[in-house]
Amino acid sequence: MPPLLSVTDLSVGFGNGESVVRNVSFDVQPGETLALVGESGSGKTVTCRAVLRILPKIAQIRTGKVVLNTGDGPVELSSLGERPLRKTRGNLVSMIFQEPMRSLSPLHRIGNQVAEVLSLHRGASEKEAKREVLTTFEHVGFPDPERAYRSYPFELSGGMQQRAMIAMAMVAKPDLLIADEPTTALDVTTQAQVLGLIKDLQRETGMAMILVTHDLGVVANMAEQVVVMHKGRVMESGPAAPLLRSPAHPYTQQLFDAAPAIPAQPQMAPELPQDDLILQLKSVAKTYTLRASSMWKPDVLIHACRGIDLNLPRGKTLAVVGESGSGKTTAARVALGAELPDPGGEVLFRSQKGGEQITVHQMTRTARFAFQKKAQMVFQDPYSSLSPRMRIQEALTEPLEIHNIGSRAEKRDMAEVMLRKVGLNTDMMQRFPHAFSGGQRQRLSIARALMLEPTLLVCDEPTSALDVSVQEQILTLLEDIRDTMNLSYLFISHDLAVVARIADEVAVMRQGLVVEQAPPDTLFYNPKHPYTKALIAAQPTPDIDRPIDLNLVAQGAGDPETWPEAYRMTDSEMPSLTQLEPGHKVRCYV
Fold first, then answer.
1. For the chain, N or C: smaller number of CB within 10 Å?
2. Nearest to 341 by CA among 187, 512, 157, 89
3. How large a percentage of the chain has pLDDT more than 70?
4. Which residues contact 277 (CB under 8 A, 6 or more apart)?
């Protein structure tokens, strides 16, 4: 049987520069998953975009050909005319892009954007398309498909937007799906369910897939064939099982070594001190009102956070873990004063030991200005965190300008100190953000957050968009900065392997509630709550003999009304957060 897709001797370059993809060749068989693995900048995405010819105008396919074997015979995509190529894109071959915020139209509802694929390529009526889209939304894990259908992209979290992109690519059931880091922005339970969904769809339809990823755990669970790329070249390729069990190339082994993992043995840590708390959240709740779709229907109340109590000791890291939409980022925004808690909730901040305690949501304008110097945030997306129109020097010194700190020379000196602190060269000061990789941009975002010498840093998924080797560097950097500057971190994440490494205490959130809270050594090796167990089971490991247990994931990540009776939650009734042992709290009926 001929391969569904054949890429032969492909080379791609930009302008007059050297080729960034060099002599790449691989075949994808029908129903098979081929993983393209490598760090950021290795040429994975450019290779995939060359298959569909959606490269920038400055790019050229310099050598090679791409052949798609359809039911009507072979089609050479690399030389196909633009009109027939449009019929292929989204119909026979679909692509999931890595950055949903840039790929979705901000002016159209999510449902209409996904339904457009069926109307263009299948001629489906509006009613038929909506029915198919809602079914697909349910499959990719939207808790309320109808609400998602009516929503605009800005009304959804990053993880929810990525689910919409996955639904858009899969709704037409293509012959080949090109997935460019499809689960990078997703929490581990949704990632496990989406990967399981893609596998089921492959079995049902015979769909093949090219999976672009840096996560070897995902590769171990999904791929039959693996192609490892570095600096535009293929380093190693072959069947997944022998390659993952015994990688031959040093670069592949380097990727394995950099992959974060939950430690095999618990690392016993002392109980956290409670006598010097930099941040306290007491009974914090946050409710949003969603406008009804018509004047005849009542508005819908969205409970983003419900009764959260968290304490962050000075110099320590409190990690908040949970799936997209669980309320993690909302809790962080309330902690920083960007959102007001519902009446009855309280956020307390103490800049230094023995100093004055501030009630964050009751600050005057002057007090808020002073508070913002002491509490800063590092955002999830390094590509959107820096203004594309500002040089690095301007971006770093802007906080000092706002707070009127230092002379022009002193500001520049401070920027140079921070650049060195995050491991970058000071000769980068006059460049613009587009000249940097994702990892470098995240370092710049951290440097900017540190310019005002804060005592509290809120890190919202700071490593989720980065490949494993860069992720390792950023985590090491954050640990070093925390220890040398005595910083306190409120660390938002869905990656348990990252949390196991950096956190002193972990709070697991689901549907706006903390369902379990404990130090990492307790939480990961003696989990009690079914949702915590699902998070741990969903963590992919780069071991082909240890696949994700989708049944355990589905049980814990499913409807709370189906959980075991001791943990069951409904809209009207839910157990309280109970301390089962010192430092270990679980939401359950005792």
1. N
2. 512
3. 97
4. 311, 312, 313, 314, 348, 350
